[in-house]
Amino acid sequence: MKKLILSAFAFASSMAAQAQIAPKLATFQDLVKAPIHAESIESTEKALGVTIWSDDFSTPANWTIDNNGQTGIDFGWNINNTSEGWWASSAGINSTSGGNYAELVNGDAQAATQALNVVYTMTTATPIDVATLGGSNQISLMFNQYGARFNDLQEMLISTNGTTWVSVGNNLDKSVLSASGGSAYANPDSKSLNLAPFLTGTPSQLWIRFQWTTNYPNSATNPNVWITYGWYIDDVKLVTNATNDLAVTGTDWGSVGLHYYQIPTAQVAPIDFSADIFNGGVNNQSNVKLNVNVNSGAFVGSSAPVSIVSLDTLNVSVATQFTPAATVGSYTVTRNITSDSTDDVSANNVLSDITFNVSNFIYARDNNVVSGSTSNGTNGFETGNLYDIFQDDLVKAINVRLPGGTNGATVGTEIYTKLYSIDPVSGDFVYESESAPLVLAANNLNTNLVVELDPYVNVTAGTTYLAVVGSYTSGLKVSNAGTSPAQTSFLLDGNDITTSTLFYQTSTPYVRLNFDPVLGTEEIEQVQQVVIMPNPSNGVASLQFELLNASDVSVTVLDVAGKEVQNTSLNQLASGTHNVAIESAQWNSGVYFVNIVSNGTVLTKKFVKK
Questions:
Q1: Please, what are the domains in the chain?
Q2: Which residues have a Cβ under 8 Å from the Cβ of 459 and sit 6 or more positions away?
Q3: Tens digit of pLDDT for each residue in 69-82?
Q4: pTM over 0.90
């Protein structure tokens, strides 16, 4: 990723100093407690060379199991034809060989019987003589798997001496399956790992190991990090590598490092396209290029041709940036990789199309395809995205989408939106503005909810901002749509930016900037000139407001948990200025919300009790 407008180094170092820069741990509340069986997928293995060794677990003695002192079928690895796990107990893995398979379990998460501080390994009992089998260092490890990921680390390792182990892959590329989203693996999921980068020569002895433990060793005392849905392995093999095999291992696109799926006309900027290309084949590859085509030829660009030697990876970027027109329109970008050779395994360098829009006023990082949501158990939180500003403009609102239904946001939850700028030197979040509190109604869910900031914010070119939606209490869930590069979308655990823990998230929350100039021009509030004096106060304060027209008025005061602490009804007040006493002497210190209801509309102000 290219640098953000803010210094990427300053931001990362500052955030590391004040908060935890890591994905958020899944909690027991996130656990999917009903079995989910992925659709059976016909295995589409890479068309490599020759299989020189294979094992389908028909002979369990071919593998050595170390279950870290745990006993019983419910802990560690086992090899048979029955699934013992709590989550997929009736499933197992679908494989062409049938019969036995390997399974990893660690207790029953629903009964909280998981073992802590364990490392479970399953290793080939005898070394594989690759040289005698006709192979070389140009081989790949392939196997079928099934399961799902929570907080666990599912890892593959090899050794050429039986003592020193090298990690050659893991399943951290899989999404976390939780009540908020994610998915189980395909059944089966075919995984291929090129071992050539880890082998200096043709090994006469090679051990293969599958290993399970927590992905969060620093939180080892937390039982949540030892939960697993289970991991199933079958049909393990070593296969010679293809002669010509370019693989795309990563891609990036966007303006100054961030990609946007909706771009306001005023924020249009040049867009870069790049890719990491790995040569996993035996032959060196020449004249390798990344090619992009926008809207069927409206823009065509390529990277400079490069040569990539076997087992090397190069990052290539399209030489010319693409700048959309500053008018409303839709764009589709197709991409491909070309070289002088015919690729033997073309499936691993296919790049999906990119679609985005230039809109009038909406700035969106999410792709509008909702999948899962972000929540924080019983705690309040904020979540949102970074946005780079290329032209001075006026942000009037933050748009959000909150899921409804059984597992959606809770009607009655009080939420807000907030905007921070990012200090370009320290990387600190600097408060700019927030909305009045909004109590969720049923019609606020599963829709594009526009929440106005008060006051509006003049954003400045060359500055990066963080737009969030948040709540001080439980009940908030925020829809996700698409994925984000690390440290560009965030969850703040708790709502005090100076003391709470900050996590990045790779799912993109549906939190957008709204520059619509019409906002705020069509409504004239019945209640105006609202002032609370003194504020903060440790006793009686005065709420003063002006009514444009005669009406009934009620004033309620809520604490941050939504509990009503004062309710004052005022019948048929005349137009003009009025005062209501806020009697806070007996209240606890903290933040309160004063709601003034008139003619069916609500105006909310914040009040602080010392």
A1: 28-45+48-240 (2.60.120.200), 246-359 (2.60.40.10), 362-514 (2.60.120), 527-609 (2.60.40.3080)
A2: 389, 392, 393, 394, 395, 421, 465
A3: 999 999 999 999 99
A4: no
